[in-house]
Specification:
Elements lengths: L6 H15 L3 E5 L5 H7 L8 E6 L3 H6 L5 H7 L4 H14 L4 E7 L14 E7 L4 E7 L4 H27 L1
């Protein structure tokens, strides 16, 4: 089962978890172009925890709205663990929420390099205590890469806050 196969179930679990914890969530998306926000807002009532997000496709938006340092982009590129982490931390801080998510990658069919293939995606989740990041290389076409990335983001969010739920409830 791929992450996108159970996105609806993950969003329901996300809503239950965030509402139980009283947390708020914001997202910063590049290669998914708002698909994570759309998946979350497909569930009615998520305004109780979902604040919103930024589609930061260009480096200028990553820097200007999210505060991604220019040196991170220059040294590591827009598709990197460091950029995903900076996006997650930036949206968390700028929108003043408990949890921020950053997604950046190469959905294809173009944009690949020798070191960064089509399907390479970094998802980061920032909380007050930590910033987690995962790297995946998804098979398939552009749509498949984007869907898989949304599922991976939902899983990582739940993983980042899940231990708090079991100790707080």
């Amino acid at each position: 089962m791929t992450p996108q196969d159970n996105a609806d179930d993950l969003v329901i679990e996300l809503a239950d978890t965030f509402n139980d914890l009283g947390y708020q969530l914001a997202v910063a998306e590049s290669c998914t172009g708002g698909m994570l926000a759309a998946a979350i807002t497909d569930l009615a009532g998520v305004s109780s925890f979902f604040v919103g997000g930024v589609v930061s496709y260009s480096n200028e938006v990553k820097q200007g709205l999210l505060g991604v340092p220019p040196e991170v982009l220059a040294d590591h590129g827009a598709v990197s663990e460091q950029t995903a982490q900076a996006m997650a931390e930036g949206v968390r801080n700028r929108l003043e929420v408990d949890v921020g998510v950053g997604i950046t990658g190469i959905a294809g069919p173009d944009g690949a390099t020798d070191r960064k293939p089509v399907g390479l995606v970094y998802v980061a989740v920032a909380t007050a205590d930590q910033t987690l990041c995962r790297e995946d290389v998804w098979p398939g076409d552009r749509a498949a890469v984007r869907r898989a990335s949304v599922g991976a983001a939902l899983q990582l969010i739940l993983s980042a806050v899940g231990s708090r739920r079991s100790t707080s409830v």
